[in-house]
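Protein in question filed below.

…
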Amino acid sequence: MVRNEVEVLALGAGPANLALAVAMEELAAEELAADTFIAEAHENVVWQRGMLLPWTQSQVSFVKDLVTLRNPRSKFSFINFLHSVGRLDEFVNLGTFTPYRQEISNYLQWVADSMSRVRIGYGKRALSVAPIWNADGQVDGWLTRFADDTETLSRHLVVGTGRDPLVPEQFAGLPADRVIHSSQYVEHIADVDASAVRRIAVIGGAQSAAELLWAAHQEFPSAETTMVMRSIGLKNYESSKFTNEIFYPSFIDEFHAAAPEARDQLLREMHLSNYGGLAPGMLETLYRQRYLERLSGEERLRVITMTDVVGTRVEDDEVVLSLVDRRTGRADELRCDLVLLGTGFRGTMPALVRDLAAELGIAEITVDRGYRLQLPATDGASCYLQGVNEATHGIADSLLSVLASRSGDIVKGLLTGRRTVPALAEIG
């Protein structure tokens, strides 16, 4: 087992920790940047890896990149990326604020490749994180073990690995080759034998489910594609200019200071601004396709609303979904060859964070306004959580909108709490 030592270890090279890397290079170049290491489980940086389809676009303005809202003069901006790769004129001529996901993904890799001080390591999947205790029962640092038989000792830890995929329990028992979550669609759909698929069921009623429906409809031109959802129908995102003010970085202070019942109300009312709706273009595409198919009499795209999937089984080499109509209580069955889950991600903390909290003896995982995990006792060590704090920091916490400001907050917190400490080897 090879052990490395750094002052700051960040897990995951997604947008959250790449924004942190930019903030390190701009705000802590002399103090922390060179002793910061980002560990990425994959061999490259890809945004929304499972759903990186060629026609998909971001629903967020390119101005909300990794840095612009914190430092509009930064060399790490999306605009400078376009200029650097010779595509700025073409993008301007495209006339949109919402780039294709592939272009954002390319931007993120460009930022990762542009780091001069912060180091990024690929193929480093974290298996566990354990606190290091001193003689006084205080946390001195963290020991992270990776799947490549290495471990890293750090004073500070930043977790930016995202949430765990939500696979509803009724689908958990299906064979792995019969069910694909949206987070793994691109990777696993390539292994599916198209000639063996005649019917595809898509579960969910928001953007990811709609994208799965359209992708499967295009990729399997001979198959019927059926979306099953609990709601009354597909809806637009709530995206009025008034509503969009909740995505301002300045709104975080207002949300964080609100009473618990007010936070709950805000999260409920803002659900359609991120989770429960679709982009207008996707809605239009699906509706027109369904209309054209009904017009031609060859209907391949179907939508079943207000229906629960209460069970699943495999029978005669078919996946059978047991359905219940929420309006009438009527039971029915839907037979298919493949199930695609657009069911999103778990609202709970990621498993790695929950396991760490158990080691620390923390019953309730909470962070302060600066995203620092509340530890029982610490002697200079800290742990920051990115993208999993909606309950305390608002619905924008998992989105691109607040990346620039949040990374600045975390770096400033690290610098403020920094002090002279023993060499890391001494606390191992």
